[in-house]
Amino acid sequence: MKLFVEVIVPLLFLIVGFGMLVKGADIFVEGSSRIAKKLGVSQLFIALTIVAMGTSIPETAVSLFAALKGNEELALGNIVGTNILNIMLILGFTAVLTPLAVSKSTVKYEMPIMIFTAIAFSFLGLGINLFTGEKKIVDGMFTRADGIILLALFGLYLIYLFRLARKTKSEEEGLVPYENKISWPLLILISVAGLALVIVGSDMVVKGASRIAEEIGISQRIIGLTVVAFGTSLPELATSVTAAIKKHHDLAVGNIVGSNIYNMLFIGGITSIVRPVPYSAAFRMDSLVCIGASVLLLLLVMFNRKNVLNRFSGAFMMCAYFVYAFSLCC
């Protein structure tokens, strides 16, 4: 009975919570995408904003709930761990299934933005001034001022996306199914229902993961970097794999790149404003891995003459991730 209460119940919370997260995010993205289409927004804009940010809703909810409940290591581990997993495991797995052709725009602009974002996030966590390079404090901490900086950078990124969307014509085939018959009230209801599922599921994931970490003696950092990161990345996995199979390579890659930028800037910013988040010494290596994964992705694509992330590169990225995950347990 004690084992059931201390381990089985938290595990059930975790599993049910993940299920609600994935389904809720799927419903929310579907509803939001249809609303965007109804408003006449370009498909490129939908891919770069609603799809990329929509699949990151679980990360947003989990990190915010974790921070509010005082589980700061879980919140930070979820952000950093998700970004590492998105690149190394999800894009790696997707590339193994089918080689991914990456657009020149993504290689030239969006991937470098992702690398800059990872570096800026690490600098702020270490307490280093982004403009002068001076150390602000001895012990790393994401303060509310850091959160404001991250949100300001996110605002600049949104301006970039809007300008990019204005230069791009809408594609004739939508990335998301759309029907004119669906009314505005129903579209809004669908989106709200999806968001509600995400919020409830996030609360269950945080409670389950925190309880399991306490019972088996694993730090919240490791739980956040692995189990929770994988669970909240399921929408990205489903989206990228489906997009790649349907030959929407830009969506498959853009979903991951856009989600990673969103995770660092928006989720990191909002979480830090809600509650300052300690950046422990253990996270320094994780941040370096995150930066390294971003740089590795860019190099693997650039070294291919056709800007293709091939099966060999995907397998290499997956192997590198498993080595990193194994190192966390040692």
Write up this protein.
The radius of gyration is 19 Å and the shape is globular. With 330 residues, it is mainly α. It has twelve helices and four strands; from the N terminus they run ααααβαβαααααβαβα. The strands form two sheets. The chain has a two-stranded antiparallel sheet with strand order 1-4. The longest helix is centred in the first third of the chain and has 37 residues, at 2-38. Helix 3 (57-68) runs antiparallel to helix 4 and helix 4 packs antiparallel against helix 10. 78% of the residues lie in helices and 2% in strands.
The profile of the biggest β sheet is: 2 strands, antiparallel
Number of helices: 12
| SSE order | HHHHEHEHHHHHEHEH
The rounded Rg comes to 19 Å
What share of the residues lie within helices?
over 70%
Number of strands: 4
Structural class call reads mainly alpha
Mean pLDDT, to the nearest integer, reads 82
Parts with pLDDT < 50 across at least 5 consecutive residues: 169-179
- The spatial strand order of the largest sheet comes to 1-4
Strand percent estimate: under 5%
**What's the N-to-C terminus distance?**
31 Å
* Structural shape: globular
